[in-house]
Amino acid sequence: MDGQEHLELGRRGERLAEAHLKRAGLRTISRRFSTPAGELDLVMLEADTVVFVEVKTRRDRQLAEPQDAVNAGKRRRLLKAARWFLLQRRWTDKPCRFDIVAVVVPPGGEADIAHFPDAFVPEHW
C-alpha cells in the first residue's frame, strides 16, 4: 500500500468511526485537530465529557489488532495534544477521557468497528 492509499484508508476509518460514535450519541466537536504536539483524530462530546478519540484503521488483523498501535509514546503525544486543545478552548474544567476506535476494512468486505471507551487513563493529567 502506497502513501496515498494509506492516507485514504485512514480517512475512511475516521469517517466510519465518527458515524459509529454519533449513532452512540456522541457529538463531533472537531476532526483532525492539529496542535504543536500532534493531531487529534476526533474530538467529541458525550454529555459534558470531552472525548478524545484515536482512530486506528487496518485492512486486516494479520500483524496485530489496530488498537495495539496506541503504545505509550502515542498516548503521551495524545495527552499533550489534548492539553493543548483544552487550553485553547478554555475547557480545562471539563471532564475528559481517551477512547480508541479500531476499524478493520478488508478489501471488498464490510468494515468491523470496535469502540474502546476510556481506553487509557493518563498517569499525570
Fold blueprint:
Elements: H1 3-23, E1 27-35, E2 38-46, E3 49-58, H2 72-89, E4 96-104, E5 112-120
Parallel strand pairs: 3-4
Antiparallel strand pairs: 1-2, 2-3, 4-5
Strand order within the widest sheet? 1-2-3-4-5
Number of helical stretches of at least 4 residues: 2
What's the SSE pattern? HEEEHEE
Counting copies of identical and different chains, the oligomeric state is: single chain
CATH architecture heading: 3-Layer(aba) Sandwich
Structural write-up:
By secondary structure, the chain is an alpha+beta fold. Helix content is 31%, strand content 37%. It has helices spanning 3-23, 72-89; strands at residues 27-35, 38-46, 49-58, 96-104, 112-120. A five-stranded mixed β-sheet has the order 1-2-3-4-5. The longest helix has 21 residues, at 3-23. It starts with a helix and ends in a 5-residue tail after the last strand.
